[in-house]
Amino acid sequence: MAKKEVQKEDSGKELLMALDILEKEKDISKETMFEAIETSLLTACKQHFGRSDNMHVVIDRETGKFKVFAAKTVVMKPEDNVAQIAKEEAKKIVPGVKVGDVIDVEIESKDFGRIATTNAKNVILQKIREEERSVVVKTFKDKERSVVTGVVQRYVGKNVCIDLGKADAFLPESEQIPRENLRVNDRVKVYVVEVKDNNRGPRISVSRTHPYLVKCLFEAEVAEIRDGSVEIKSIAREAGSRTKMAVWSNNPDVDPVGACVGMNGTRVNAVVDELRGEKIDIISWDDNPGILIENALSPAKVVFVIADSDEKSAKVVVPDDQLSLAIGKEGQNARLAAKLTGFKIDIKSETQAKDTPGFRLEDYYDEDEEYDEYEEGEYYEEGEYEEGEYAEEEYTEDAPDEEAVEPDKEEE
User: Fold this and answer.
1) I need a surface site. Which of 99, 104, 246, 306 has the fewest CB within 10 A?
2) Burial status of residue 400 (CB atoms within 10 A of its CB: 0-12, 13-18, 19 or more)
3) CA geometry: angle 197, 198, 200, nearest 5 deg
4) Whether domain 286-412 has CATH 3.30.530.20
5) Which CATH class is domain 146-209?
6) What is the three-class DSSP state of 291?
7) What pLDDT was estimated at residue 26?
């Protein structure tokens, strides 16, 4: 009997040690596993005895010892050994018991049989897998719309598998920065787009092209963004090439652009390095759409802007020598400015504006009304007007139709 107790005590210690390891390495709580063990033992009882509705399991959370009991009715001559017990046998357990009483009778686990025990083990292992998957899903579900660091594990076709520690993430070709050469074992930061749980386990979709990747990287680098002094109002990005970001300060003593750039450019350079040299323009946000559009077209200089907030469109006039710079290579600067501001932007040089209706200041005044000559940087937000088009032949060789730049409606 003493030997039997020692064996039970040893098995209890081993169980607790195993649960400690699971809790530490897999982040699966002990209580969850205790419940899984109880369920597995009842399953074993049902498979061995044919029923388990009158049985229950008791596990000591301190020692790890467990017992299985069957509630049996006391009778003179039992006909069902699973649900009934002879009075003489019952007296050995509970002296003074009477016929008709119900008592708990301990069932030795060794009586379960090899097959039932194996099945119970499988139930426990399945529970461990389910809990492990649940923990991973919950962990990364909390990290949706944030940046995590991973290690490039392998390529699956042109898609990349990223090791995030407790799980692998899927980086499709469409979410990779163009011309970026990710090598196995490279450490990269990725934006968690979505976390789904399916029959094959958690599926974590990540991106290197999402505009919010830039936002999160700046949040990590700039203390003023984290504490709310500086706010990122809008981001427009063409991954691998250029990003425009508009920032605003909630503290009059804090320069939002300077805070993001950092001393000697340390903060912005850290983000640029992570994005493999992608250019980043940081501009000041302004509630005046004319000023905002002028800032967005930086580094080009602007003569004046005529903005229509209702139509979300704007006409911009720039110096003759600034037209190509304002439009940018293949229209990139104008396109990003449109995405950043949410305005459809038509740009013309001063020479072109003189011959184009809607681009001349006199179009917005009565014939008898006098107006001053405009100065560089003036903004107007008046009236309705005919939409203009690009007329610069140097805009891009790839876009002969010279269409106006449309803001990306899907941009967040």
Assistant:
1) 99
2) exposed
3) 120
4) no
5) mainly beta
6) helix
7) 72
